[in-house]
Structures
1.
Amino acid sequence: MSDTLLQIRNLEVDYLLDKGAFRAVKNVSFDIGRGEIFGLAGESGCGKSTIAFAITRLAKSPAWIAGGEILLDGRDLLKLPEGEMQKVRWRRVGMVFQSAMNSLNPLMRVEAQFHDVLHRHTGATRAQSRERAEAMFKLVGIPTGRLSDYPHQFSGGMRQRIVIAICLALQPELIIMDEPTTALDVVVQREILEQVIDLQRSHGFSVLFITHDLHLMAQLCHRIGVMLKGELVEVGEVRQVSGAPAHDYTRRLWNAIPQLPGRPELAGGVA
Amino acid sequence: MNLAPNLSLPAVEPVIRLENIERSFGAVQALRGISLSLTPGRALALVGESGCGKTTCARIIARMDRPTSGRLSFRGRDATATGTREEERAYRRDVQMVFQDPFSSLNPVFSIDHHLSRPVLLHRHAEGKAGVAEAVSTLLADVGLDPAVTRQKYPHELSGGQRQRVNIARALAVQPRVLVADEPTSMLDVSIRLGILELLARIKRERSLALFYITHDIATAAHVAEEIVVMFAGQMVEWGDTEAVIADARHPYTQLLLSAVPDGARPFIIGESARFLERAEKVRALSRPTSTAVEQVGKNHFVRALAAQN
Ligand SMILES: Nc1ncnc2c1ncn2[C@@H]1O[C@H](COP(=O)(O)OP(=O)(O)O)[C@@H](O)[C@H]1O
Ligand SMILES: Nc1ncnc2c1ncn2[C@@H]1O[C@H](COP(=O)(O)OP(=O)(O)O)[C@@H](O)[C@H]1O
Ligand SMILES: [Mg+2]
Ligand SMILES: [Mg+2]
């Protein structure tokens, strides 16, 4: 096993529209190391989610992967038969989306939803699922007594933590988080993301963290990629991308974020 | 000593004044003793987490909802009870709202021109075809959109930021005195928020509008508002001059809110999550009980005492 978990090579993704193909992802390449938190930043519409869906091959028509490779441990996911891919999805690559907290089944107790996922992917018995669910609830800081509650009995932030807990229960090697906290308040956002970095440290998984907020990204990622209109314009260590961005666009992105007065400027204070 | 939370500067007559507003939905006390004033040419930001009562407060000001108790005055007159038809019409024209979701607040089947022509005509701010067209163009230019390009477009052809500008133009079309903006940037990318905030600050200044800016993001509040109210669970916990509240936050909830604003210069520290979670829970528990004790800590800077210390 090498230190690199995921390699994206020259990825191209189109949306096939009536008026022709629209290239949403243009020749994008980057790596994510084992145990690395890699951030993908950029304005809305630049192609971040399209990449997330391509990795999990959940992209639906009219999305079309026009070229490139997505190597997980050296194996090209784009070439796997769908049956094989199903074993990779959730088991090896987990996903938490912005609206994930609304994807819980409102009619099922949370415990049953754990079992549903664990049984489907690992064949776990009810007792095994219960044990795993309790362990996961402890990890994300929710009292285990609440496993028998229904989703609507939790706040939005708690529901998002439950989705993360369900995702972690399968012990994936990579978790893709696409704007996982964009719909939440800053305090709740921080509660969840601090937890993610602690869990990452204790469990060792890798994270692809997607957001439009560079400041937030710099607080938890090791390396950052910046996208502009389907292209990856800059990739680097967090310190470099925040302190000395190479690309003009990265600098503009930093300066466009409303900050509290009196906070030090990042990106070298470039105007 | 009367420390009634009053945000108006004595020299300026407020357009809207809330005194001790309460609003309950069954057992839920959505607003507890809200008192604040909106003054021409100034912005007041109402900041707090989701569910704390911000929209309820906005709806009361916009007359889309009624308080359970308390007093609402408009241009010096008591407007708590429903007035005459004429008074209600004037109120509704003078107080306009911009909503959070720029996507759902415009009708997809109508052009931008149609969206803006209607209020202009309805409130007779222009006459004749040419007059209305001229008024619409001026509005679009005022909110930073190119009239020639934008007029004939449909909502889906615009970006989120552009749509929010159209919503602001539509509110301005009736020449209101008060603009209530309920989280106008929270569904937009951080990178385009600044432009909308600058626009709000400019129209407030140029048109002497009283702006009520609602947000859960205290960093954006600092960009538009001279005064800020931090609210938690329906109670104002800290309020006053924006600079004072941010630079010298006294209430633990304000401090928590400030510490959670993303700051790339301060990476999260591994192993801290349990401590932050515990702190946040503790601050919420401390801030929730009703407290009537208010302390003045600066010229225009007030803090509600924690209930336990009463
Ligand atoms: N289902 C779709 N059909 C057509 N175009 C799409 C579809 N989904 C996304 N796009 C387009 O692809 C581009 C990238 O979108 P997306 O990956 O969602 O961006 P991001 O996640 O960075 O906001 C955008 O221009 C968007 O309009
Ligand atoms: N029409 C209503 N019926 C019942 N409860 C409501 C209603 N409107 C708001 N609430 C409750 O009042 C509280 C404040 O809500 P809201 O003003 O929407 O908060 P915010 O805008 O700060 O997120 C919440 O607990 C909410 O559930
Ligand atoms: Mg996206
Ligand atoms: Mg609201």
2.
Amino acid sequence: MTSPKLLEVKNLRVEFPTRRGTLVAVDDVSLEIAAGEVLGVVGESGAGKSMTGTAIIGLLEPPGRIASGEIRLEGRRIDNLPYHEMRKIRGRQIGAIFQDPLTSLNPLYKVGDQLVETILTHLPMTHAQARDRAVKLLEDVGIPSAAERINSYPHQFSGGMRQRVVIALALAAEPKLIVADEPTTALDVSIQAQIIQLLKKLCREHGTAVMLVTHDMGVIAETADRVAVMYAGRIAEIGPVQEVIKRPHHPYTMGLMGAIPTMGHKTERLTQIDGSMPRLNAIPRGCAFNPRCPKVFDRCRVERPDLMPAGQSHASCWLVAKEPAHV
Amino acid sequence: MIAFIVRRLVQAALVMLAVAFVSFAMFNFIGDPVANIVGQDTPADQIVELRKALGVDDPMPVRFGRFVVNAMQGKFGLSYRTTEPVGRMIADRLPATLELSLVAAIFALAAGIPMGVFAGLYPNSWLSRMMMTVSLIGISLPTFLIGILLIYIFAVILGILPSFGRGETIKFGFWSTGLLTVSGLKAIILPAITLGLFQLTLIMRLVRSEMMEVLRTDYIKFARARGLSNRAVHFGHALKNTLVPVITITGLQLGAIIAFAIITETVFSWPGVGLLFLQSVVYADIPVMSTYLVMIGFVFVVINLIVDMLYFVVDPRLRTQGRTSGGK
Ligand SMILES: Nc1ncnc2c1ncn2[C@@H]1O[C@H](COP(=O)(O)OP(=O)(O)OP(=O)(O)O)[C@@H](O)[C@H]1O
Ligand code: SF4
Ligand SMILES: [Mg+2]
């Protein structure tokens, strides 16, 4: 990938201090997203996908916090910005789409007002210009008779339409990156594919990069340029989507790829592998996947593997290690 | 929406009818109205005539019907104590009570909402903790004690505010107001605080918990993700969503304020209907008591109606029938 790095996450660690010790929800995660690129993020529930995304947009809720590592947007560090600086980046540089369109919109305001408010927050426009832009945005996301619907309240839209409005809101100020956290999980299966297509099309047109969190490997296969597989707060494998799908290097990824459903069909959650992911307070020594790994060997139980080059990808598994074991 | 209003009006009418019946029952079954009017030495035939004239021996539904018709015209009979028309007595004193209640409610809202918002936004700050602790005291102290305490501090020790009465009033037609004179304004401060303190703490706690609840919702998170300023998120998006429960409680509490004015009016010798009611209890002045009951019932019903209407103003989901566009 020769295009310049838009987003760089380096050794990110997100912690939750609790009474019974500190929980590490995201552990030593490093990833990059180039301008206009779609990075898919998959992994079982609790793997830390949302936490990574939330850390990037700077909305971790206390007591959750970034304990170490850094996040850079176009080379500028954004993980340590004060709230009022970061909020100028949110929406303007990094947009966000959350899982549930039914609850993402404020029920008491017209969708047009929510759009205009977002536009005026970030762009130097008059109210009338912002309104025109809002209508245009609604048209772009495929809302019929947008000029009228701008005066509707969220409850007057169906779930799919609401998620379109949410996409319009995320794109309102032309951000360079959108963090989309399971944007279709809450929707009817029949419209999931449409929404993904729409998101993909709009981002391609605007040159917007996307971090697409999903459980649906089919969506990843059709949409993403690269994919990161997360397990227990860490990245198990990251690489170009075709490579990861066709030649997975990490045993966990191999398990996931065992059954790729075709896009648009409801998939069961990614747990085709026996057993379940360890809880945050009981992550085993060595490789976190070792209790479930069919290829586990001695080294896995003592030493934790970091990401290592594996073909065109990177995987954190001792199987791909070039250097000999230390034990 | 029209259908809703009509339905509510019918409900309100039914409630009022029930209240009127209780009041009517007090009138008729507690004591003998004729015996209260006539003296020891009234001749028997005169009593019979009086009974006929008053219609006391008519069948109950007829008497109740007459009671309702009279009540709607503001005719509630004569006070046993002063022999004045009860309707007039109440009307004379109502402005004092309403002004006191209104000022108390405004005080409770104007102080309670900002305090609640602050405590909801910064639940861990020392100021919020202090407000929560003090509000507990405010809730548990009885009203008359607060009143006496305030009188002691501001009237007795500091001597800057009057401890009783309404000050000078100005008459506008039937309405006499104390809000336009300096002495009237000074006189209303202590009773209004006394009366409003409980509601203040209630509103503050309510706004706080609603605010904390709303701040956890997805649309607030999404509003932040859109880069809106803290002010827009807190006051534009969060506060407005706390309003529905606040309106409900405030509405109900306004009724409670008017009803509880009895105690405050007594402590401060405030010439309102509450004080009148208490005097009537002492004299077993049934007409005044039952009229007071009808009046309080009426106030509650009217406030409830207004609260229901306000929901429509605040929450668009109630205004429109769930018209959804095809999302497929
Ligand atoms: N407030 C919190 N306190 C402690 N732990 C938390 C808190 N919020 C989340 N976590 C933990 O952080 C871990 C990562 O959660 P995250 O939401 O990122 O998972 P995810 O990969 O997005 O899963 P899902 O697919 O279910 O959305 C989980 O194990 C979760 O239990
Ligand atoms: S490091 Fe060992 S346990 Fe972990 S995935 Fe690789 S082979 Fe399996
Ligand atoms: Mg998640």
3.
Amino acid sequence: MTYKTILTLTCLMLVSGCSSSATWGWYVIDPTTPTGWTNIKFLVSGMGDTILISVIAAVISIVLGLLVALPGLSERRGWRLVNRVYVEFIRAIPLLPMLFWVFYGLPIVFKSMGISVPIDPFWGAIITLALSDSAFTAEIYRAGIQSIAKGQREAAQTIGLTYAQSMRYVILPQAIRRILPPLANQFIYIVKMSAFASVIGMQELTRRANELVVTEYRPLEIYTLLIVEYLILVLIISAGVRWLERRMGSDERA
Amino acid sequence: MQSEILMAAPAIELRGVNKWYGTFQALKNIDLVIEAGEKVVICGPSGSGKSTVVRCINKLEPHDSGTLQVFGQTVTNDPRSYSNLQGEVGMVFQQFNLFPHLSVLDNLTLGPMKARGLTRSEAEKRARHYLERVRIPDQADKRPSQLSGGQQQRVAIARALCMEPKILLFDEPTSALDPEMISEVLDVMSELAQDGMTMIVVTHEMGFARRVADKMVFMDGGEIIEQGAPEHFFTAPSSQRCQTFLSQILQH
Ligand SMILES: Nc1ncnc2c1ncn2[C@@H]1O[C@H](COP(=O)(O)OP(=O)(O)O)[C@@H](O)[C@H]1O
Ligand SMILES: [Mg+2]
């Protein structure tokens, strides 16, 4: 009820803003005027970096997550502890402090070790996003692999397969159906969190919006467009996830 | 590390093997010697430790004390102690444990190709040979889920045979099957026995045991209560527990 009221009010506010009253200024992103069009192009051109950062971070996280998940599946308590500590630790750190630590702190750590690895905003953002996300992908892998019956691993062992071979040929091909949809879902998290890259100067969607707000002083209109940009991006990924879920589900053979 | 397999030694020798699950002792001082070519049937009430014995032999479970030798080679819980035996001790499970994402043929070729280094065509030739032996040559391209239980278990036997093991372990291979499919699996197993395979079979199929077993083993409460030749075992078991058990299952 109240939810609906708020929604209606918000819509009314936005619509009323379109009728050029004094407080609203959609001209700032009006594609029919030259300045408006330039502004839109400036804002939307951040899309490339947002996607690029997210995709690279997701790929790293997918690999890293598997490497973290495997010790979590070990019979040995020591290995499982390694997994637990990593997951709990990484999951507990808020993204923004982690981003600051990676961007401002990590180069100093490297320097003290005698290696100079300059971390630019691009890689700073990617490393942080990948690290943060890897704790979640690790848990997705662990759950997916554990859902495959123990008998499968045992059967693989009795026909002489090594641990790596039984993972590669027996367990993962079956677990992947249960892993892929939540993994793709996790990509939405990365895309949204990539907005934090703006604070270390990465010229992605959010940073561009901030910069334009400073010069144009039209926060409502510009941030509205920003939200719409993320919305479109996420809705496209969501559609992809649902397609994947349907495909994986319909293919299930027990 | 020994890499030659000594065929003169007993196929399997357990001496004083103990196994605990936490504080619960699942195996108590197990002594069991199985010669190459021998067929041993293990029976006993549910929870008596039959599966645990079999699973300790092929190292699906670690044992806690005592010695285990396979063809004279001491097997510990360290995988390096039996790396040369991988695939030599085949196993057939109650629940088949076929790989559902692979075709029947791929279920059979996986081990030979990855663990034995056979080429695909060699492995497929071997697979078709064993599918013939378990009498389902025409199901090679199906998925396991498209087969009946009896057919699935025969595929599982063929999959084990494709590794050309020296010993085959069966853990209640017919317990998950509908009654009308039990005999097709037992027939295949009887044929294997005739061909001289060393077999350890956990089963309550006493007709099969009488026909095939060289040695009967009765377990209860994690102990081997009685072991001996089937003639003696079925006609005059010395322990009361074994008598009771036999009279119970032979009634059905
Ligand atoms: N993984 C396990 N953890 C704890 N107890 C177990 C486990 N596996 C088996 N047991 C116990 O060990 C005993 C022997 O089990 P099992 O060898 O499977 O018996 P059987 O095959 O003769 O029915 C049972 O009491 C069972 O509950
Ligand atoms: Mg059992």
